Amino acid sequence: MEEEILVLLKEFGLDNNEIKIYLCLVGNIELTAYKIAKQTRIHRSTCYDILERLIIKGFVSKIEKKETLYFSANGINKVISSLKDKENILNNLIPKIHNLEKKQENKIAILEGAEGQKQFNFNLFNLAKEKQVDFCYILGNTYASNLSSNIFIERLIKEAKKLKIEYKGIWNPKFKEDKIIKQYNILGENRFLDLPSKVGTIIYGEYVAFLYTADQPYVVEIKNKLLAEELKSYFLYLWKIAK
Fold this sequence. Notes:
By secondary structure, the chain is α+β, with helices and mostly antiparallel strands. 50% of the residues lie in helices and 21% in strands. α6 runs parallel beside α7 (150-161).
């Protein structure tokens, strides 16, 4: 059970020391930074920095009693409530930011690491939600095995189903039994073709994204109507060959 908690908190974005301090507080009502440092064996000055980060993220609260600071863990429901407030603010920002982006006919973005992949997946979902994208074609090879967060992807797939976008996926046969690829069946159809490419390609609306892993996962996202149309035609040609 504790191992599962560690995995989920890491999926959320907490690092090892943040998790260690949060779980230390979960088992206690209130603790000073000195006692937290002693129990976790993390230097007290470092503890203060981590506690401030956890307060900002909504996982910890602090209170002053007789000129001494005490820290306590927030319940997960309180964390969710705090995140919902922030999510509502950000959701109001999304269409305004996208309106600014529409003025750019061409755009290139490089997203790095697991967080970059999450950001890409979230951006794609929101483009579909705003009806700027009505299809999504995936030419996959390594993409399925390098997903930043299976939990995150599963949630987006379930929500994307409601948007009724056209989905087609062509994957390397070695991914036939991949759990996440089977999840994509909810959206549309998957076919398989033995391709030599080590880079995943996604075509959606006027966008193309290339996904690959070097020292870490990378996503290169390009907004270019001509490039998207060319790759869409190439994908549909391969779709006829794939089984």
